[in-house]
Amino acid sequence: MPRKTGKIPSNKTVLIVVEGKTEQRYFSEMKSIERIPGITIIPKQAKHSSLESILKTALDEKKSNVYDSVWCVFDYDTILEKGISEKTKKLKAQVERSEIYIADSLPSFEIWFLLHYVIPQKYYHDQNTLIKELYKYFPEYEKAICTVYSKLKDLNGTAIRNSYALLERNKQNHDKHASFCNVYKIFEELKLVKR
């Protein structure tokens, strides 16, 4: 009797290029906790925290053809403060043409943590103002904490629902400077949350 021949399904590999240590710790902890069948998550901190460095890292990694999906995670507040150079605009357009996905946040990644509890305010003066509000719901939060994912994971569904509500509020108000967060898109791709 002949042996069955079949292909072993390969894992989908998702690279998440991040801006800083907060994001790196969060996605590294997520990787260690979540065992998603058929998906390997690889968080990687860009060499520098500039948008240009994040985008270049993502492009270089995408060209390697090692990853099925590449994401860039960064804070949008620095872009609003400093503006975006023509060189970086071109780089961003190249990233988008290369099917690299962007999960940006305004003012910062911590808005994703706050979304686990509430729909955030429309505006935050800066990251520190956002973190002050986050303390009301998550008093033990510190940027250096390595267990944020495990503390918030049971509220991921709430965070995604609140992300959609935030998106809808911003669409209705047509306000491009209002707080936003696109991190939920990564979770949707990974199917970590069943809606």
Can you walk through the features of this model?
With 195 residues, this protein is α/β, with parallel strands linked by helices. The chain is built from nine helices and five strands. The protein has helices at residues 21-33, 51-63, 77-82, 86-97, 110-114, 127-137, 148-152, 156-173, 184-190, and strands at 12-18, 39-45, 69-75, 101-106, 180-181. A five-stranded mixed β-sheet has the order 2-1-3-4-5, sandwiched between helices. Helix 1 (21-33) links the parallel strand 1 and strand 2 (39-45). Helix 2 (51-63) runs parallel beside helix 4 (86-97). The model has no long low-confidence stretch (mean pLDDT 89).
Concise overview:
With 195 residues, this protein is of the alpha/beta class. It has helices spanning 21-33, 51-63, 77-82, 86-97, 110-114, 127-137, 148-152, 156-173, 184-190; strands at 12-18, 39-45, 69-75, 101-106, 180-181. 46% of the residues lie in helices and 15% in strands.
